[in-house]
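Re: duplicated header lines in exported structure tokens

Our pipeline writes sequence and tokens for each protein into one text file. With two proteins the header for the second block appears twice in some exports. Here is an export where it did not happen, for reference. First protein block:
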Amino acid sequence: MLKIKTLKESFRGSNYTSALLHTKDTFSLKYRRLEIRAKLALGAASWSPFCLLGSNVITAGWPACGEIDMMKHSGNDQNKISTLSSAGR
């Protein structure tokens, strides 16, 4: 289980911090299944995405490496979750 918490603290001009996880060279998916269960943030300014980038993100960059958006949620629309878009294809 992984818990990511948003903290109210100043960092690089923002008033809050959260997390960005890199699994380069430790985790890769091909013909697999990935499930998430998430408790999403509330509030008009919240943004809760869960995205996967291609394993060549370092060399190709984003969006050329590809992106799978498993889930995106905006606090401005609490009852809507967007899924399965891609970039760089």
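Second protein block, exported in the same file:
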Amino acid sequence: MKISGSGKLSERSIEDTIVVSGSVKMDGNIECQGFRTSGSTRGEGNLTVHGDVKSTGSFRLTGMLNTDGNAKFSGSTTVGEEIFVKGELSNSGSLRVGNKVEALQGVRLSGSTKIAGSLSSQETIEISGSTTIQGDVNGNDVFIGVQNRIVRKKTKNRPYIVNGSIFGTNNVNISHTIVYGDVKGRNVKIGKRTEVLGKVYYIDNIEVDVKATLAHDPIQISEIAEDKLQQ
């Protein structure tokens, strides 16, 4: 289904991909096979997609976004409730989410992102754009303020804020970040201009830059202790 002018969609299930290059308003819950928008899309309800989601325009949804594929945002995107992605989520534009975000196959945030809940993935979470997360960050590997494990160019301000805790099953590598909760990982690297107000837990290795600030000395834990910390 292609919409290139001005249109309106009422609550329905569509056995097709919705392609928007004009202006569309969606009233109620919409279910479709794929969703692409390069125009202006406003949705009053939930959007369920059984394929990929791609937005390069203006996309605002009051409800929840649920997709079986990947989600890629490069325009201005606002989702009032949570986002659940079975594939990978990436954002190089402006993304605002009113609840939690979960993307099973990885998260890459290089734009401006604000998440009012938690951020989680079974794979790698990589954040290199200005980001504020109100909840926890949970991933297999968590990289914040680094790119390919190399610290990015020095910035005047810390563009990364995590009001909850950070947990990485394997590696946690953060730089230019303020964390109000704890940091936990097998191998933990706290880079320059990073402040952790909670505690830092590690299993195998710890590295703290001289320009980082920790409220407490790092604590080495065992596998068993780590499991207890996740409960």
